[in-house]
Amino acid sequence: MNDHSPSGRPAASSSAKGLLERASELFDFRGAIGGGAAPPLDIPAQIIPQPPSVVETPVVPVETPRARDWTGPMHPLDRALMAERGLLLPGAAMSGLGEEFRIIKRELMARVRDSERRQNRERGAVIQVTSAHSGEGKTFCAVNLALSLAADAGVEVLLVDADFSNPELPRMLGLRAEAGLMDALSDPALAVEDFVIRTDIPRLAVLPAGQASPHDAEYLGSGQMETLIAALVSARPERILIFDSPPLLAASAASILAAHVDQALLVVRADGTTEAALRDAAALLGGSANVSLLLNGVTFSASGRRFGAYHGAEG
Questions:
Q1: What does the alpha-carbon distance between residue 132 and residue 281 come to, in Å, rounded to a whole number?
Q2: Taking the model in full, what pTM does it have?
Q3: Burial of residue 60 (number of CB atoms within 10 Å: 0-12, 13-18, 19+)
Q4: In terms of residue numbers, what domain contains 171?
Q5: pLDDT 10s digits, 152-177
Q6: Domain containing residue 118: CATH number
Q7: Do residues 1 and 9 make contact, with C-beta atoms less than 8 angstroms apart?
Q8: Residue 311: pLDDT above 50?
């Protein structure tokens, strides 16, 4: 039978008393109950938890991957075919057409550089050349613009055939087109750089359209298109991409492509493009903030400017 205290409560065992007495030596329970402060707890220093040390992680800037160089085999351009088609010939005497494209490229690149300064970007420029309808000279102007730009030092021009339904750009230069842009868009495992054709003009390369697809508009509007452009111009401010796109009023792909470019050049045929067609085409470029008009097929100059007369004069 257990012992009981006079109050009827069980008597504390000697071990229990020892614990209470030892606790009383550390804490003034009576003082705490009466409002007095309890003495500080004396805990050995080695078991006092220390606040975790704060280690500042250095901020490492993320380096933008640099777009690859073109490493494929070099293919010569067919200069006889180019002359037959009225294109600028590298190394030939300056002509009136050459002077016109000198002016066009200077004005266009001034706008590109102004846009780059405002956006503070370190990448190449992306330019779209298009028209309202087919037959208005957009591919002719895109090729000549690329040839004129490639004559400048310190630039690399990539002429891209994005007219998937009518990919005539390589044929105008006498190049054999195989895989190209659409193949890289439809299969992310393929590297678009591998399809770039180097030419015998040191600063000019060509990217064919590739295999046609009924879903070209969807591919152009996909995130893969942004990835592809970055792979071509990332950390390469000297590069200029010129897209020869479909006519705006013939294929929706042209207006979708406009969302990816810095500048859009809308070719207008002097004797063919109607004002209604021009207005409709310009409206489809609404996503592009920088649109320029290029008047093609002009047979006279209101200002009397005739560069060909000067360069063709004897003496």
A1: 5
A2: 0.76
A3: exposed
A4: 96-297
A5: 999 999 999 999 999 999 999 999 98
A6: 3.40.50.300
A7: no
A8: no
